[in-house]
Amino acid sequence: MRYTIYLFLFFCQLVFATTPNTWIKLNDFTGSPRTGSSGFVINNKAYITNGYDGSSYKNGLYRYNKSFDVWEKITDFVGMPRIQAISFAIGGKGYFGSGQGIVSYTSDFWELDTNTLAWTQKADIGGLPRKAACGVSLNGKGYVGLGQSSTGYLNDWWEYNPTLNTWTAKANCTATPRREASVFAANSNCYITCGFDGAYKNDTWAFNPTTNTWSSKTAFGGTPRYDATSFTIGNSGYVALGYDNSLNYKKDVWQYNSYTDTWLQVADFGGTAREGVSVFVLNNEAHICCGYDNSYKYDVWKYTPNIGVGIKEEVNSISTIYPNPFKDNLSITFNQLSNHCSITVNDLNGKIVYSEKTNQTTEVQLNLGNLTEGVYFINLISNNQIISTKKIVKLN
C-alpha cells in the first residue's frame, strides 16, 4: 500500500511539473463560466467566489486543491451576489467587499473563516461605496482604493487593520481617479498601474506604507488598458490580459522588477485573450481562471515563472550568507556596511517576518529557528531603500 502511495505521489509530481516561463492548462473551474469573480489563498488552497455568468450574479464559494487539481463547491457567500469586488487574505482569513450586484455601488466588507466556513460582516470599507476598486494585503494590513462610485471615479486609499476592525484614510493615490486599475504588492510597497479614467492608462505608482507617500514609477510595458489581472510572485509583480486602447482583448503578460523599476514581457497567457479573470498564486505559480472574451469562460491555466524571478542579487554590500539552506542560525558577512542600516527577512508574499538594526560590522548572526520551512529573502536597507537582497532557504 505504501509503495502504491509513493508511486501516486511521484506520478503527481511528474504531471504537475512545469517548464519555467510557460503556461499549461489545468482542469476547468466547475462553477458556471463567469467574469468578475474574486479570490484569495489560505493554507495553500485557493478560494473563488461571486462573479457574473451572463444571466445572474453568483454567490457560490469554490475551493481549489492544487495537489489533485480539483474544485469543490463548499458554501455560499451570505451577502449580495456581485462582480468587481476586492479580495485578499490576512492572517489565515479571507476578506471580500465592495463591488456591483443589484446595488450598483457597495462598501460592505466580509471575513471568511475557512475552518468553519462562516462569513462575518466587518466594518464597511472607508470612503464612498464603489465597484472596480483595487484591493491588496501587505504586512498584515489590507489596502483598498480607487474604483468607481455614484459621483464618478475615485483615487482615495484606505488601510484596514484586521485586529481592530478599523479603516484609516491614507494619502490619496497620486494617479488620476480611475476604475479597473491593477494592483500588486512587492518589495514592501503597493503598486497601482493601468485602469480607465475616461482614457486607457498605463502609468504606474508605488505606495510606501511606512512614509504614507506615493511615487511615480516606470509606465507599464504593454499597451494602456483596463480590467487586467495582477499578482505577485517573489518580489516581482505581474500584470496580464485586459482590454486595451485598440479595443481588443489582450493575452500578453508583463513582469515588474521592483528593484530596477523595469518591465519585462514574459510568456503570453495560454488561453484566449480576455478581461475580467480571477487569479491566485500557489507555490509560486500563478493560476488564472474564468473571464470574458465575448463569451464567459471557465478554463484554468497555470504559469510557472523563471527560477529566482524578482531577485536582485547585489554583492556590493552582502558578501556571503551561510549556511544556506539553514535550520536555525544564519551568518551574514558584508563587503561594506554603513551606519543606520537594517536587515529584514521577508516571506514570498513580501511580509516582514524578522528585522533588526545593524552597525559598522563585517558580520552578523541571525536566529531564525522559529520560521517555518520555505524560501525567504534577506534585505539590507539603507535610507529606506533596499540596497542588497539574497534568497535563503529554511529547513526544518
Low-confidence runs: 1-16, 310-316
Strand order of the largest sheet: 1-26-25-24
Distance between the termini: 27 Å
Major beta sheet summary: 4 strands, antiparallel
| Mean of all residue-level pLDDT scores | 89
* DSSP summary, beta strand count: 33
Shape, please?
globular
Kindly state the percentage of residues in helix: under 10%
The rounded Rg comes to 21 Å
Strand content: over 45%
**So how many helices?**
1
Structural class: mainly beta
Write a structural description:
This protein is mainly beta and 396 residues long. 4% of the residues lie in helices and 46% in strands. The chain has 1 helix and 33 strands. The strands form 9 sheets. A 4-stranded antiparallel sheet has the order 1-26-25-24, with no helix packed on it. A 4-stranded antiparallel sheet has the order 2-3-4-5, with no helix packed on it. Strand 8 and strand 9 form a beta hairpin. The radius of gyration is 21 Å and the shape is globular. The N terminus is likely disordered.
In brief:
The protein is mainly beta and 396 residues long.
Record keyword descriptors for this entry.
single chain, 396 residues, mainly beta, 4-stranded antiparallel sheet, 4% helix, globular
List the helices and strands and how they pair.
Layout (H helix, E strand, L loop, with lengths): L1 H15 L5 E5 L11 E5 L2 E5 L10 E6 L4 E7 L9 E5 L2 E5 L11 E5 L4 E5 L11 E5 L2 E9 L2 E10 L4 E5 L11 E5 L2 E5 L10 E5 L4 E5 L7 E2 L2 E5 L2 E5 L2 E2 L8 E5 L4 E5 L11 E5 L2 E5 L10 E5 L13 E5 L6 E6 L6 E6 L5 E7 L4 E5 L6 E9 L2 E10 L2
Antiparallel strand pairs: 1-26, 2-3, 3-4, 4-5, 6-7, 7-8, 8-9, 10-11, 11-12, 12-13, 14-15, 15-16, 16-17, 18-21, 19-20, 20-22, 22-23, 24-25, 25-26, 27-28, 28-31, 29-30, 29-32, 32-33
